[in-house]
Give the backbone structure.
Amino acid sequence: MSVAYDRPSLELPESPELLLDAYLPLAQYHADQLMRRVPDSIERDDLINAGVLGLLDAASRFDPGRGIQFSTFVGYRVRGAMMDYLRDFDWFPRSLRDTAKEMQQALSRLEQEYGRPAEESEIANALGLDLDTYRQKLLDIKGMSVLYFDDLPLAGNEDGDLDVLEVIAGDPEETPERQTAMHEFMGQLATAIEALPVRERIILTLYYYEELSMKEVALVLSLTESRVSQLHSQMVLRLRQLLHLEPHDDQLG
């Protein structure tokens, strides 16, 4: 089972050396969590390096007057820097993006038509595929199904796109309007999660909240690891559709 990193209770260290000593394990922890969800072409050391840059940025931007602990603030900044690195690392071919887009569009059409979550066989039929081929395509796009709730964009605000990470981290440029957008989005997210089929909702909870590995989720649900991966990819497509996000308009799905 995954063990959550126990963040240090220290406040902002006085020198870069002390900062790294205190918070490098935090960067390593987030890198290890992300490595479970990205393609083999991503190097752990590169994620850690990105996290260190986020750590230094957090130290330069931290304002103790905002009433947030540095240990909390830096955690979001470290992970955010890693997510930025992954966004810039374009590892998916256009053909795979097109496949994912087609699958999400088919899912969207069916769920609008039926007024309920579409079943696998229905999605496969709409795509002109047999069930085994459809499931294989779900496995093909599993690397695109990296989903962190604090990386989901809040669109439609006057300041442009805002992600949940910025608001939680107490971004210095945060405004009351952005806080309102955040609360609205979290309500939409909760509604979308409730609309997921039960098994996909369980996978979401075990994988993202309990931080179990795919193998551990498979053991809990008495499924194969590849089957859990298929359901996870389908869950991501369905959640994006429920949140009205364009099909894979970014690297992380």
